Amino acid sequence: MTDTALRSTGPIRVALSGGSTPRPVYSLLASAEFRERFPWARTKWFWGDERFVPHDDPESNFRMAWEAMLSRAPVPPQNIFAVPTDGAPEDAARRYEQTLRHLYGKPALDPAMPFFDIMLLGIGEDGHTASLLPGAPALSERAHWVAVVAHGRPEVRITLTFPAIESSRHVAFLLQGQSKAAIFAEIRSGRSTVPAARIHPAGDITWFADRAAAGA
């Protein structure tokens, strides 16, 4: 991520992933080794998905990124675009979508002009990514960029949809642990239909897996 950001000269848009796996990456970016090198002033931060809980809730993806990185680095407050988690979930999703559309400046996503420069994603044991859960209606959403997911989990979630996720120059999947080995092997077979296997971005995909997740 640092190399991609340093090679660019204009604004950088990064969508962050939640969960425990990316926390060390965020902490490293905010460490003394990288803090002075990273172009914080040019980087705008977004989220691929969020639990519909207050931003200070222990389950909040925003809180994890804030504690691990954003509060420890010189990030301009106006460069942080957290998913709203107030009011009704459907209204919050529409507000986040309006924010994205306003920043994009065009009525429809153009594959030749990806919205995100870097999209960080994780993967669940069931093959979900962001909050695109197997069987959820959001999987078939193509008009909206943001959707509410109330399927298959105890808490409501808000997620970017396939069109928004795929509007990315670089997608990076982060995998860790033996529990992800089976689903990773299935995806690598090329025959999987789980949500994570259905990501086809405008740019490239890189899989970062530890030895356990890679089945090594």
How would you concisely characterize the structure shown here?
With 216 residues, the protein is α/β, with parallel strands linked by helices. It is built from seven helices and eight strands. A five-stranded parallel β-sheet has the order 2-1-4-7-8. A three-stranded antiparallel β-sheet has the order 3-6-5.
Please write out the topology:
Elements: H1 2-7, E1 12-16, H2 23-29, H3 32-35, E2 43-47, E3 49-51, H4 61-68, H5 89-104, E4 116-121, E5 146-149, E6 157-160, H6 162-166, E7 168-175, H7 181-188, E8 204-209
Parallel strand pairs: 1-2, 1-4, 4-7, 7-8
Antiparallel strand pairs: 3-6, 5-6
Provide structural commentary.
By secondary structure, the protein is α/β, with parallel strands linked by helices. The protein has seven helices and eight strands; from the N terminus they run αβααββααβββαβαβ. The protein has helices at 2-7, 23-29, 32-35, 61-68, 89-104, 162-166, 181-188; strands spanning 12-16, 43-47, 49-51, 116-121, 146-149, 157-160, 168-175, 204-209. It has a five-stranded parallel sheet. α7 links the parallel β7 and β8. The chain is globular, with a radius of gyration of 16 Å. The model has no long low-confidence stretch (mean pLDDT 94).
Task: Tag the structure with descriptive keywords.
single chain, 216 residues, alpha/beta, five-stranded parallel β-sheet, three-stranded antiparallel β-sheet, 7 helices, 25% helix, globular
Please report the number of helical segments. Answer: 7
Percent range for helical residues? 25-40%
* Rough outline: globular
End-to-end separation in angstroms reads: 25 Å
Task: Output the strand order for the largest sheet.
Answer: 2-1-4-7-8
Mean pLDDT across the residues is 94
Name the structural class.
alpha/beta
- Sheet with the most strands? 5 strands, parallel
**What is the H-and-E element order?**
HEHHEEHHEEEHEHE
Please indicate the percent range of residues in DSSP E strands (runs of 2 or more).
15-25%
Strand runs, count: 8
C-alpha Rg, in Å? 16 Å
Q: Low-confidence runs (pLDDT<50, min 5 residues)?
A: none
